[in-house]
Design brief:
It holds the Pfam family FBA_1. This is F-box domain-containing protein. It comes from Perilla frutescens var. hirtella (Perilla citriodora). The protein is mostly beta strands. Helix content is 11%, strand content 47%. The strands form 6 sheets. Strands 4-5-6-7-26 form a 5-stranded antiparallel beta sheet, with no helix packed on it. The longest helix has 11 residues. The two termini are 37 Å apart. About 1% of the residues have low confidence.
Length: 376
Amino acid sequence: MGQDFFTCLPPEIMEDILLRLPIRSIIRCKCVRKSWLDLLATPEFAKFHLSRSAVPGLAVFEWKAQPKRYKIIEFVDELDPNCDEHGLNVVFSFDLPSLVPVHNAANGLLFLWDTGYLIICNPITRDYIEVPLPLDTCDVCVEGYGFGVSRISGQYKLVRMFSEDKQDASQQQDAFYSACEVYTVGTGSWRRIASDGQFEYEDSSVGAFLNGNLYWLAYDFKSSTEWISCFDLETELISTFPPPPIDHPHECGNLSVLGDCLCLCYNWEDEFTSEYDIVIWLMKDYGDDEISWTREFVFRKMIDTDVLGYICPIKVFEDGDILMEVGSLLYYCNKTDPIRGVDVSRLGCKVPSKAAIYAPSLVSLKTFPMENVTSF
């Protein structure tokens, strides 16, 4: 009876039903019927499903976890009664042949980067691409990467921002010049694009991806000022705009995405006090005529928490609690104020890890030409 029912359903109704299912149910449906498998493997279905039912979670890479270091996690809005914090539900774990940290994600594809490795992976389809390294590396002293997808054409791109140490003939001394290279997934090669050459980017920084753009903090040598550099993945043009106004002499700033806003988190470091401040700014409006920053959160961390370095806020829960990453996952409780480590792998309170917001999708890397796709 059930088999006859599904056989008689019109294809458009069957597709609409499948589009409403969560990603784990869809994976199971691949094993039910060959016609379903063929439908679920199409790029069109992957695109529609991503737009309708992708719920952001978390992709975590843990250095000390054994045997599987990569975890896909769902957020739990309810408080954990045992520790007064929101729970994290591990959906599944996996490993790759090369253990490379997760840095960010775009439309269900993870970007992993470490010395000698550039990897794009879809843990749902269990496929990955090892992107060839750029050839122009001999004079590079500082480099950072970004990964995202363009708004109109839907092209996935890796962007490399780097500085070169070259001889300035006019001044007869070494000088730093910034440059940019782009790798469009499916082309198999890097290409260099125009750059104004005056900015220095933080070494090993990863661009924050939001609405078709990649963002980096950049330092302008000519004016000795800090800017935010915006790379448009569609037009491949670079523009700049100012960060929020700050007046603290010892800050550690980091760009990321929080919710649907660009986020700049300053981690104040004051050697003369026993407390440090964390300040989170959100960019609420961004356009040709107006850029509006809002100081959304300010809270303190005691010095014995050892929370130093570049903090990346990941999620703000409805009650004001905040999940962050700074070399490990940290949790800030809005009611009691303490910051504490998050135990994901049950190995301890502060497991060294890298994390990125991740919304699972069915995008198949096998649809990209010129790429050597490996299954795991």
